[in-house]
Amino acid sequence: MDSTEMTRAGRLLLAAFIASGSVHAQSVDWRPVYSVDAVSVEAARTDSGFDRHRGRVAMCGDLEEVVSFAADVDSYPNWVAHTREARLIERGAQRTVFYMQNSAPWPMRPRDMVYELIPEVIDAHNVRVLMIGLPDALPPLEGVIRMQLADGEWLFAADGAGELEVQLSLYVLPGRAPKLFANRRFAHMIGDTLAALAVRFPCSTPLGNQR
Predict the structure, then answer these.
(1) Is 82 within a domain?
(2) What is the rounded CA–CA span in Å between residue 37 and residue 44?
(3) How many C-beta neighbours within 10 Å does residue 115 have?
(4) In this predicted model, what pLDDT tens digit does every residue of 112-138 receive, in sequence order?
């Protein structure tokens, strides 16, 4: 294994550790912070003061179709909350790399990051997509703050009968920003994004009445 492969292998192991909850996910104290439509969002405190967030929602559709839609970078400005710009940099069988810029209310400046998506098929009914920030992949843009760190994951779990639960977790170091404001912003971003995704994959009858 050459040095490049060793570096990539190390990054994947670190990403898998971080995305699983950073430290002993079972001991993390999650608390509800936001709900919208059928989406619930929880937060866990971290030493940085910026919370880790996760949200989940139920929807209907084909697992492969939903995963493919969630990885369609060009469509992000249409449904991923607070997205000003998203563009594909690289797509391959093992990973997708893209640039995304987030809007911010005045007087805050917009934030951006380059992300790497790494899919993992767990089994026929479960897919995990790691989401790793690559802050040094592109030079910073004037007037835009490059976030210092971003890591998270998508989890897609199908029941085999057309229903899915989708979970999105994310931890971000956005750079200099009021922590209370940033935590609220990211909680709403995750909730509103999952709600918008569910709208695109509705169920013909309410989930509670399908069984």
Answers:
(1) yes
(2) 22
(3) 21
(4) 999 999 999 999 999 999 999 999 999
